[in-house]
TrEMBL record:
Keywords: Antibiotic resistance, Cell membrane, Membrane, Transmembrane, Transmembrane helix, Transport. GO terms for biological process: response to antibiotic. This is Transport permease protein. The chain crosses the membrane at residues 20-40, 52-74, 95-119, 131-150, 157-177, 217-235. The lineage of its organism: Bacteria, Bacillati, Actinomycetota, Actinomycetes, Streptosporangiales. GO terms for cellular component: ATP-binding cassette (ABC) transporter complex. The keyword Kinase does not apply. Belongs to the ABC-2 integral membrane protein family.
Length: 238
């Protein structure tokens, strides 16, 4: 039942043009636009080496947070979650199915983004296992707060808030704009954001060949625990 529901969730995302734009097309466009041109000053080093990890982090946020928050919020509004909760699939199974669907969509995103980045001359380094740990921890962090938003706000408010957070974190989370460009006081605060921690952690591994980066992992773990605990406490199915 869980796998069947997960398959339905994946197909629903891939058939939704707006979701597909958010989760796949926008990250790829940003990667190509800023990777193949000099519109932005990305600091020393090769542009694609800086951009590819950041765009991977953006893809995780777009699926686990923005897309999941909006989709779940409208499912809650129209009573879909209430009806699913009354089926033989338990509520824990529904959460597991949504989690599997998010991971499956992220796998597609990662494959496409990595293929485009490699075509642009990207040469990643580091341990793939460390990358997977960072991506999974980032997924947990974003999913918790996405579900928290979807389970506590009205669907329209979730739509507006999720898109606003997406834009703000895209601009100030170290995805395509280096955090070094911000004032030192602001930079320290921005480094504590989950998107910044994920992007910088991925760069530490893929660009510098580092092992598991301690500070980004700690930041992501704190966000993951906080988000999942709050979502479990305050999420309302109706």
């Amino acid at each position: 039942m869980i796998l069947s529901q997960a398959g339905f969730e994946v197909r629903a995302v891939l058939r939704n043009g707006e979701q597909l734009l958010l989760t796949l097309i926008i990250p790829v466009v940003l990667l190509v636009l800023f990777g193949a041109t000099s519109l932005l000053d990305l600091g020393p080093g090769r542009r694609i080496d800086f951009l590819a990890p950041g765009v991977l982090a953006l893809a995780v946020m777009s699926t686990a947070f923005t897309g999941q928050a909006i989709g779940t919020g409208f499912e809650r509004r129209y009573g879909v979650l209430k009806r699913l909760g009354a089926t033989p699939l338990p509520r824990g199974g529904l959460i597991a199915a949504k989690t599997l669907a998010v991971i499956a969509v992220e796998a597609v995103q990662a494959a496409v983004i990595c293929a485009v980045a490699l075509a642009l001359g990207w040469h990643p380094h580091g341990d793939p296992g460390s990358v997977i740990v960072l991506l999974l921890l980032g997924t947990a962090a974003f999913s918790g707060f996405g579900l928290l938003m979807a389970g506590t706000l009205r669907a329209e408010a979730t739509l507006a808030a999720a898109n606003l957070v997406y834009i703000l974190l895209l601009a100030a989370g170290g995805v395509v704009f280096p955090l070094d460009e911000f004032p030192s006081g602001v930079q320290g605060a921005l480094e504590l954001l989950p998107i910044a921690a994920l992007a910088e952690g991925l760069r530490d591994v893929l660009q510098d060949g580092a092992a598991l980066p301690g500070t980004p992992l700690l930041v992501l773990a704190v966000w993951a625990v906080a988000g999942l605990v709050l979502a479990g406490r305050f999420f309302k199915w109706e």
